[in-house]
Amino acid sequence: MKxxxxxxxxxVMETMPAADxxxxxxxxxxxxxxxxxSGHFLGANRLQPVTTATSVRVRNGRVHVTDGxxxxxxxxxxxxxxxxxxxxxxxxxxxxxxxxxxxxxxxxRPIAEDALTLSLGF
Length: 122
What we know:
It is a single chain. The chain is α+β, with helices and mostly antiparallel strands and 122 residues long. 28% of the residues lie in helices and 34% in strands. The protein has helices at 18-38, 88-95, 115-119, and strands spanning 2-9, 41-46, 54-59, 62-67, 76-84, 104-110. The strands form two sheets. It has a four-stranded antiparallel sheet, covered by helices on one side. The longest helix is centred in the N-terminal third of the chain and has 21 residues, at 18-38. It is flat, with a radius of gyration of 16 Å.
């Protein structure tokens, strides 16, 4: 089963001192290589800072666009992994090793693989 692991933290690499960010980046590189070897890795990426976000809402047929994230929160989504895991417990074991889990939260969500999503080409 595929899972999305969303990494949220109060501080992202862009706001860390350069030496700390470099160390954190190296931890991610090592983790990513490890899950590539184990067969869990499907994809991953860092996101631009929350200051670059744009939120889109449609209400009564009108499009509303605002700068920034939808919700006000101290934690922000800084990146994600898409992994393949045998079950939720396996996904938890992988997510617990994501370096950002030590500084924030990793939310795990199963990716729908049902007839609707398959018919839409996802």
